[in-house]
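Blinded run. Sample ID left blank on purpose so nobody reads anything into the name before looking at the predicted structure. Input follows.
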Amino acid sequence: MGKITGFLEFERQVEAYEAVDKRVKNYKEFTVPLSSDDLQKQGARCMDCGIPFCHSGCPLGNLIPDFNDKVYKGKWKEAAAILHSTNNFPEFTGRLCPAPCEEACVLGINEDPVTIENIEKNIVEQAFKEGWIKPQTPQKRTDKKIAVVGSGPSGLAAAQQLNRAGHWVTVFERDSKVGGLLRYGIPDFKMEKHVIDRRIKVLEEEGIVFKTNTQIGTDLKAQKLQSDFDAVVLCTGATVRRSIPVKGADLKGVYQAMDFLKQNNERVDGKDEFSEIIHAKDKNVIVIGGGDTGSDCIGTSNRHGAKSVVNFEILDKPSVGRPAHQPWPYWPMKLRISSSHKEGVERFFSISTKEFIGDNKGNLKGLITCEVEWIFKEGERPQLKEIPNTEKQWDCDMVLLALGFTGSEPTVAEQLGVNMDFRTNIEATTKDYATNVAGVFSAGDARRGQSLIVWAISEGRQVAHHVDKYLMGTTNLPLKDDNDLPRV
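Blinded prediction complete.
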């Protein structure tokens, strides 16, 4: 498997970035690809470890040593076939996944892990370039019709798998274009939208029907799906944004991150008419929330030409290395510095916003914070405590709330009579992904809550297996044992 001494001969090498002053002037992807020779050397670093923990680190169970070996040997077409056997959309995960597989890499115990994610991206890009990715139309069609609600990664994966089983699949999307948060939440500088479009073209040629500008629950009642389709799969995501319960949160200038990011993506796509322009040019911007969405807001604000960008995180600053209580191969909660952070931002941890300050016209002009500490007691939930005499006032013209999501929107579930759990996610177990309503299933963030794109694709593949079995009695669609899946 690979070159026996490869991990001793070659150091980890990742793609370089274009210079900051160049890349912030546009919304294009800015990575500089490695040469084929360098990529083969990276594949050679896969160390024939005996027990590849990267398999369990990946929610999809990607056959990582196998495609690394093919890349090392220059057999790119075979690598692409291996990669697609477990992952419907490696062009998405190869750009956007935080790579839990690399944290579980055996080489990572005491060396830099294999560059799995970058190899993955380059395999699929080579496959598209060479024309190896072709529509896979089913040899035989059933008489079963399936409605998939939501065209994010879980919905797309479920649709493709069910279509391959021979069913007639229709995907409903409330926005004007397909992709869900892939299109309207992920900035173009992380993934340009032609990457989505070329894959959707393949799915359409395979026979999947997409109906956009159709919001189930309002434009089309959910009960209509039950009468027109043999099964319904809810992949609507966890899109209820978390608010901040402090005075002044309704001031003009305080925005939800997803409103800011979606509008910017639409603007990049050519749309120029909006009821309100949300733009950071020449503004002092504060982003509240230290996750990936906050990072995306930072990168977008810098491209707008913000005067300054500051980032608040209520949690303590993570350690630079792997924490002692999160040993290999577990996913470590360590300090992560994204490409957007490197473009210009001041980051503050253990800080909480107490109040937004406005002028006499209702416009935001500043906010007040305090420092906080977390109290940990065994067997109890962590307690947040304000540190006395640490209040500080900050001048700002715009605040972006990147606080995550609280659950799935309830409209469709209510119309169908589907139960929701205590976290306001659609209730469907991993046993069969079925809800309490016969013929109605759920997967992705709508079922498990806000999570990773790789989890969404995995869930889409899993639910497809169970839907096919429900409709036909048996199924040939793959199923990954949930007991093997990592908890990231």
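Unblinding after everyone has recorded impressions. The first strand starts at residue 16 and ends at 17.
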